[in-house]
Write a structure and sequence with these properties.
By secondary structure, the protein is of the alpha/beta class. It is 17% helix and 33% strand. β5 and β6 form a beta hairpin.
Length: 307
């Protein structure tokens, strides 16, 4: 990380964290051929991973950049659409897409066609980034992820993803995108992105509990703390719900999975409002405005079915 599903949005002159399996020479590469060498500060992470704190040159132009790595042995790796240079703003819009289901049979238009159309619509609006909350694929196979990525990389905005219950084959999601739980900041606000794949059994003291607690605390001082996940159900891990909705309640929870809108406005045992958007595979998406006065979901937009 960062990558096209877990990117960073940073202003010129600021720094971002990169996580690599080994140390390497790093640089940013723009779509117009612009390149800038990075001089990271390295440290070791658990699991034989390496953390690089990368300062962006202050004179580098705003835009979209790939993160390129070259090892001492000459092996290379490139994460496209990984770094976005932009000044964050206080009031902004977020696009919410969910339940893309690449590979789902019997759909007309196909999920790939529908997803591409939605991304084309998104490219024409003013928004800070896109949240894509799970069920990216129908079966989580490498080929379905490949097809998902082909369309994802048409998007001109940063795209933050999380895993859904349909994405859980082997560890393909983790191999492609990395962390199942992560947070990021945009302007004055903090976003906590997490996976609820183990919601029925997650009362065990597992790593995800610690990640949720640690990252929730990290974004607590920010103006708004916004959660994004694929699946919210009242029976999900009670420890998770205590962390997110009782002890330190999130200011909003954005999710999918239900394939429909809902009359439920809040988490049953807390004050956290919920925003559930219908499925992208059915042509639906939503704009969410984040302002000083609150988090305001706009009406669901739905594309027509005809070709």
């Amino acid at each position: 990380t960062p990558n096209n599903g877990v990117p960073v949005i940073v202003a010129p002159g600021e720094a971002f964290d990169a996580t690599l399996t080994e140390r390497a020479t790093l640089r940013l590469a723009g779509r117009d051929g612009t390149a800038a060498a990075l001089e990271p500060e390295w440290s070791e992470l658990p699991g034989e991973m390496h953390r690089a704190v990368c300062s962006v040159p202050p004179d580098l132009a705003p835009g979209t950049y790939a993160l390129e790595a070259v090892t001492e042995e000459g092996r290379t790796d490139t994460n496209v659409r990984a770094v976005y240079l932009a000044e964050a703003v206080k009031d902004y819009a977020v696009v919410h897409l969910t339940d893309v289901h690449i590979g789902k049979a019997g759909r007309d238009p196909s999920p790939e066609t529908r997803f591409r159309r939605l991304i084309e619509d998104v490219n024409g609006i003013s928004a800070a980034f896109v949240l894509i909350t799970g069920d990216l694929t129908e079966h989580g196979s490498p080929d379905q992820y490949r097809r998902f990525l082909e369309v994802l990389d048409v998007c001109e905005l940063p795209t933050f993803v999380c895993a859904g219950n349909h994405d859980r084959q082997a560890q393909n999601y983790e191999r492609i995108f990395g962390p199942l739980v992560y947070s990021f900041a945009y302007g004055p606000d903090g976003f906590l992105v997490f996976d609820t794949k183990d919601f029925l059994v997650a009362d065990r003291l597992e790593e995800q509990m610690g990640d949720l607690e640690r990252l929730r605390r990290a974004i607590k001082p920010r103006r708004w703390s916004i959660g994004a996940t694929h699946r919210y159900e009242p029976m999900m891990s009670m420890r998770s719900q205590l962390i997110l909705f009782v002890d330190d309640p999130l200011d909003c929870l954005i999710f999918g999975h239900w394939h429909r809108e809902t009359d439920v406005k809040r988490v049953p045992w807390g004050t956290t409002p919920i925003i559930a958007t219908p499925a992208a595979v059915d042509g639906a998406w939503r704009l969410v405005l984040v302002t000083q006065t609150g988090i305001h979901p706009q009406a669901v937009q739905t594309q027509p079915n005809e070709e």
